[in-house]
Design goal:
heterodimer; A: mainly alpha; two-stranded antiparallel ribbon; 11 helices; 2% strand; B: alpha/beta; six-stranded mixed β-sheet; 27% strand
Chain lengths: 289, 244
């Protein structure tokens, strides 16, 4: 049981990483009704851009470059391809975004090879922090704090800004927003870029912990989909609660059986869907759902 | 040129719908439809269910763009233009279902309309002075207010924008008689402030009580044009197209 505090903290960190990825998935689904399997590719691009920039210019600039690069990529992708699929059925959306994810993954494998890479982070970040009951790596603590700040920044943007108001209205009734003169297309692009930027930032931020190879995108994407299904598709706080739940479940299961940790989240998802078919936080409502 | 003068009345025409043909898939709904609204006028478009009233409004705003014909608004052909552009030019549709954002509060619904407006219209104070019920309900979500309050909010959303032409689709539909009177009073009030209104109604008596002029539409074509008094006296048109 001496492992328990550390395991719980590991679960929290993993859960927060899921939250970061799931937030982008859920706001994009809420606003664009797009099931985006390319979201893991955004995480990957962020991770690799962060890796290269960190090697040459240090981690802080790596963390700035990653979300910017992914946001630009997301906007280009949206204009060139995805906006033709907004109103298509989910199968078409899954096929096209899954295709994009594979193209990105294999392109990154061509450029960076398949080897696992680790970030060069400053020495002091590699140290441990004494929490009283356990020693815990400093970088992980900073990462957790960063994700919490990110969650509230996204919440503030959606709930407290004028642009967020257009987004919340657009989630409910895109036609009426247009009838009032609102630019739904632009808002959709902004949300898509924002979702991508968040995934890119989390990709660069999480890679010093989990390292990076071309498969990491899917490694995080699949549990993140479980997270938003458990939390309720399109629900903001559902993504937060679902992410933490999935992270802790996985982490705690490793105490009993490491291989079972990959299965337990699907069991949890099945139970939640049986009890509450629309997820823990109900219908797709971005903030208050 | 922003407007054209109508020879018959000498007034400025703000909207002129010219021979539009609108389809839903293969169904031909509007057939060479013409109508005109002058600035400051309240025009009622009357007709039975399925006659093409709502489609006419949707064709004007670009929701269901006509396949042919012109929609001249302030001298510019806006047929087929994006809804957003038409809204920002000053054409406001208050749709039949009201389409209040139920996940937003009353105040947020109004704020949204202010944000998305190209130019401001009424201030929030003016809106609340005319619709005190909306002020009382400002913190309530869109699904927590009554049908009458939803209708008032839907109209108020158009008023906080610089609306030049207000298209009202069945504003009294589904409302209790007392609330219908209230909505009629609001329409008269807006009209007295100089607003141009194109009103679609099934409620014949309600529409004629506020309109200056009316059209009767049936099977996608205008069958009659006249003043409310002329229409009241035309039993043939009343019985044939309106079942009154």
């Amino acid at each position: 049981m001496s492992q328990l505090p550390g395991t719980l903290l590991d679960g929290l960190i993993r859960g927060l990483a899921y939250v970061g990825i799931a937030l982008g998935l859920t706001i994009v689904f809420g606003m664009l009704r797009l099931v985006n399997f390319a979201h893991g590719a955004f995480y990957m691009i962020g991770a690799y851009v962060g890796l290269v920039v960190t090697e040459h210019l240090g981690l802080p600039l790596g963390l700035i470059a990653a979300p910017i690069a992914v946001a630009i990529f997301a906007v280009i992708l949206d204009f060139a391809l995805l906006r033709r699929f907004y109103d298509r059925n989910p199968t078409a959306q899954i096929l096209i975004t899954f295709g994009i994810a594979i193209v990105v993954q294999e392109s990154l494998r061509l450029i960076f090879t398949g080897t696992t890479r680790s970030y060069a982070i400053p020495f002091w970040l590699k140290s441990s922090f004494n929490l009283g009951f356990t020693q815990y790596p400093t970088y992980r603590m900073i990462f957790a704090l960063g994700i919490v700040v990110l969650i509230f920044a996204v919440w503030f943007f959606i709930e407290r800004t004028n642009y967020g108001l257009i987004v919340r209205a657009g989630i409910r009734d895109r036609t009426m927003v247009q009838l009032l003169g609102g630019n739904v297309r632009q808002a959709s692009t902004v949300i898509f870029a924002l979702g991508g930027a968040i995934a890119g930032l989390v990709g660069a931020g999480a890679s010093p912990i989990y390292n990076v190879d071309p498969n990491t995108g899917f490694y995080f994407l699949v549990p993140s989909f479980v997270v938003i299904v458990i939390g309720g598709l399109g629900s903001f706080w559902g993504a937060v609660a679902g992410g933490l739940l999935v992270g802790e479940l996985q982490s705690l299961t490793t105490l009993i059986s490491a291989p079972a940790s990959d299965i337990v989240i699907y069991v949890a998802m099945a139970i939640v869907l049986m009890v509450r078919p629309s997820g823990l936080f109900g219908e797709s409502e971005l903030i208050r759902g | 040129m922003s407007t054209t003068a109508t020879p018959a009345t000498g007034k400025q025409t703000i909207l002129s719908v010219e021979s539009i043909n609108t389809y839903y898939g293969d169904s031909h709904i509007l057939k060479d439809l013409d109508l005109r609204v002058d600035r400051g006028e309240t025009v009622a478009l009357l007709g039975r269910n399925g006659g093409g009233k709502t489609t006419t409004l949707k064709s004007i705003v670009g929701w269901v763009p006509p396949r042919s014909g012109r929609v001249m608004f302030e001298g510019t052909n806006i047929a087929g233009r994006e809804m957003m552009r038409n809204a920002r030019a000053g054409v406001s549709l208050v749709p039949e279902e009201r389409r209040i954002f139920t996940n937003l509060t009353v105040a947020e619904n109004l704020k949204l309309a202010q944000i998305t407006a190209a130019r401001p219209g009424w201030s929030l104070d003016e809106v609340y002075a005319h619709f005190p019920r909306l002020q009382e309900r400002s913190a309530n979500k869109g699904d927590e207010i009554s049908g009458g309050e939803k209708q008032m909010l839907a109209i108020a959303r158009a008023l906080v924008q610089d609306t030049k032409l207000l298209l009202l689709d069945e504003p009294t539909e589904g409302l209790a008689p007392l609330i219908v009177r209230e909505v009629e009073a609001i329409i008269r009030e807006i009209k007295s402030k100089g607003m141009t209104i194109l009103l679609v109604e099934q409620n014949f008596y309600s529409a004629l009580s506020v309109a200056d002029r009316c059209y009767v539409i049936d099977q996608g074509q205008i069958r009659y044009e006249g003043t409310p008094d002329e229409l009241r006296g035309n039993t043939d048109v009343l019985s044939r197209y309106l079942h009154v």
